[in-house]
Amino acid sequence: MVPTKFNSGRVAGSYPRTDVEPSWMDALARERQAGPRLPYHMRHDGARDATLAVHEGTYCDPVTRAVGSPIYQTTVFELDRDTYAALSDGLTRDVPIYTRYGNPSQWSVQAKIASLERAESALVFSSGMAAIAATLVALTNNGGHVITSYDLYGGTYNFLREDFHQMSRTVSFVDGTDIGAVEQAVRPNTQLIFFESLTNPLIKCVPVDDLGRLAQKYSLLLVIDNTLLSPMYLKPLEYGAHVVIHSCSKYLSGHSDLTAGCVAGARKYVDRVWGQLLKFGGQLEPTSCYLLERSMKTLAIRMAAHTANATAVAAFLREHPAIVTVHFPSLSTYAYPSFHKLCSGFGGMLSFEVAGGDAAALQFLTQLRLIRVATSLGGVESLASLPYNTSHIALSTSQRTSIGIRPGLVRLSVGLEHLEDLVQDLDQALGSMSVR
Amino acid sequence: MLNGMSLAAISEFVHEIRRVPHEAQVIFGVTAHPTGHGSAVVSVETIHAGSIRIPRRFRLPISNTGVGKVEGQWLPTPHECLLAGLGSCALIVYVQALTLRGVALDGLEVVPRLELAPTAAGSHPKIRHIGYDVHVQGDFPNELISWATERVRTFSPNHRTIAEQNRIAAFVNSDTGPVSVPVSFDAHAPDRVTPATVTATHSLRLRWRFGTQIEVWGEPRGEGPGVPAFYEVDQPKQLLGIDRAPNPQEWLLAALAGELALRMSDLLPVEENGLGVSVQATGRLDLRGTLGVDHQVPTKVQDLQLQVKGPSRESAALTHIARQSIEAGVVSRLIAKEHNLVCDLPMRASHNEKPLSANRLEVVGH
Hints:
Number of strands of chain B: 19
Low-confidence stretches of chain B: 347-366
Order of helices and strands of chain A: HHHEHEHEHEHEHEEHHHEHEHEEHEH
Distance between the termini of chain A: 76 Å
Oligomer: heterodimer
Structural class of chain B: alpha+beta
Distance between the termini of chain B: 34 Å
Shape of chain B: globular
Radius of gyration of chain B: 20 Å
Number of strands of chain A: 12
Shape of chain A: globular
Strand order of the largest sheet of chain A: 1-7-6-5-4-2-3
């Protein structure tokens, strides 16, 4: 069978169902299609996550039969009668026309992301913030209200605080772990609730399942930033979320060498975000798509290794005399029981408070020899930073205190180094904090 | 996309609501607050569309007479709000229909008209004529225009709402809870007006801009050459628009709520001036009817409801005033009773077709 150039979704020759009268408005006889994808994008429906991570979305070139996806490093594609028809019908997302609209390299990695999140569709962006901004604008209207939390990545918080009202939308900041507080914040014009599944930097777990029920009760859209857990450990769509966002710069790419973002969800929502991407720009370039697709092939084993190291590091820090408290889900002191109900792994992010406040924490950072002092997270190398002067600098002291960011808090992204080397580095740096 | 309409999106939505009827239910609402001196402000409320909400940020100042400006704009009357709703709904369905037939539109206008025959002082005016003219720019086969008009007659929700009889449920909110207003329209007694009766004509000119965006032009007002009134109609982005203005159903509900709020404001004691009164009008569309997904489903706006909130007073008195006002209202009678809508089409023959013998297409309401 000769494959069609693209999947228009039309049922050739006849209306899809013979037991119903066609609608006069249904000129195209078209159901929503998962994707977009081309016939040569691999699919392994029903396979497990580790297999999907390796194979799903790979473009199998029929001529060369290459095992890996080619890179479609082009901005534009030739037009023909099929593409003219697609443009006229409003079918432009599924047809290669111009790379900002779509490119088979984007479709490869999008198929992989969608499969891991169990979504109909995914969309890649040039950064996580591009994904967040496009999503929040696309899914809200003039006059819309969003409920979120101060427990957010600083860039997201800045966007909501500084720009949202300029677009005639309003925001309420509440404690996302308190479902009662979220419900109390709902107004007649509330449209969307947005939370990080595992918060940055205090590793709080929001009750995604309760939020999903709340969203359904009030006809709200639930958008979850799942960056810190990755689709390996939580699939928010299975708990009532409508859209999931990732900063792919973190675990999905995993090597601190790529800036990217993504959105996944039902086709009807992702299509609307795609419409916003067309206007904002922020699409992911084909070569970057290839790098992301390549990195995601090892996502399963990397997350397992991150989790093993982080669990051991958390246990070590918990016993160290220079440490006041540690935030990590494996510990008995972890205060968010919904985590163990929802998530299948701990991930690699933790935070801890050193005795002596921010001055001692700064001293601690300067003594690290193996762990790199940098923002970002989720890469193969361990990274440490202080939220008060980096990711959460836009919050006032009282706002930081209100969400639990206390002096001396260090955020640690545990990488894939040998565990003993990591523990050794932490031990010597903590030990040197008392040296003046 | 042709004419700003995504046929793919419409098609996909049709399939979705066939499988999930809940997603086809769209509930609109407006609330009118009198502001004194024969004026009111109508606030458009959040739309509940299936499993999502669509906030609306529109306020429509209206007046009994159409005289008066807010931010440089003339205030529409409730009659004009109704005509804006009727004409824009028809226009959007015309655009959709012609787009489905592959027509790239240059221009399309609808001129809705309402003729009222004044009666003795104290009585409500009689409705002589309701309908609209259609003007299509370009040379099209007569068959195409007739076909599109038939789509409008069948599938324009506001056309069907005016053409058919409807129940308007009305309530007054009292301290003890909502009290039903026993409204009664004589549905089978159309207004009788002799041909020689002088009538007052209200009309607008609605011009299609692009997609679901429509310009609404009223008669020039004020002294000298006058300045035309100008309004807009659009759909929210979730319903194929770009959120520029209230949509046709919201204009229709604004007419209903605004007319009642203004009439009650006139009838309440002078010292109260009716400023404590608000009137909410709500209605529901089942898009399965509008999109022809299920022919058993009505196309018109359903579950029409008026809720009056008044100053703390005896609910019986407020109920009486509300009943009087609703039964006397032109907009409420147009919606509650069935009517023959007349649609005039200026038929132009294409080069190989004979012209129709008449250029008037009588569209019977049922």
